[in-house]
Design goal:
elongated, five-stranded parallel β-sheet, Rossmann fold, alpha/beta, 35% helix
Length: 263
Amino acid sequence: MPPKRVLLVGDYQHPDFRDTVAWLQAHTQLTATAAIAAAQQHLTSQPPPAAIIIAEAHPSRFAQRQVEQLHAASPVSRLVALLGTWCEGELRSGRPWSGVTRVYWHQALARFTAELTPAARGISSLWSLPRTTTPVEQLLLQAHDEGPRGPGLVAIHTPWLTLFESLSDACQLGGRATVWLCSGQTPRLQGLSALIWDAGDCRAGAEQLLADLVARYRPPQVVALLDFVRQAAYDRVRAAGATAVLGKPLLIRDLLVHLAPAV
């Protein structure tokens, strides 16, 4: 299956989107441009892309009128907003675009993997829904599709029993067994398929614990969970060995996508 065509427009060179753009370049047939006018010209001269991704580092960078211009130029393409850190309060205090699927920068790798690659086989596409579908309706539809399944043993490192139990339930929905790692414990474990590390607020220096766990168990997938994902903490945990970073609260499907070996 050939890679899907994607048009990326806007602030795609912003540091928040660095890893996402690299992923898109590796897994899709990507065209990127900073200007809406150039994107419109591309849409009139090329076959319609599967998705038009509008990268916005700050709220109100683009107007609803410009979003509708892109939709008019390619009505069959899915409109997706790739949003930076400064856009996370826009739903409460700003004027977010209507009829656009919102994906924050730290959610993008899981969401794009599920929607834009062959690894998405067996995962229902939310991007095929009408533009009028509300976020609540999308969540209700996902209740019947938790994500990719597969065998394996997942170690979950957190001091909180309740968090371990909820993450364990999520992993078991995906067919995986789990083991609880508490601070100060270093049990002998072999054959781990993944490690989930609860980073909390991830203050400077906390990532050394993650680096120690990765060096000890060497799991192929390492998912770090942060209370609030900010670029500095994101970079630190990635450097410590995390293959993926998710903010809390999270969707089960996003977690299981990152635990899948195909990712």
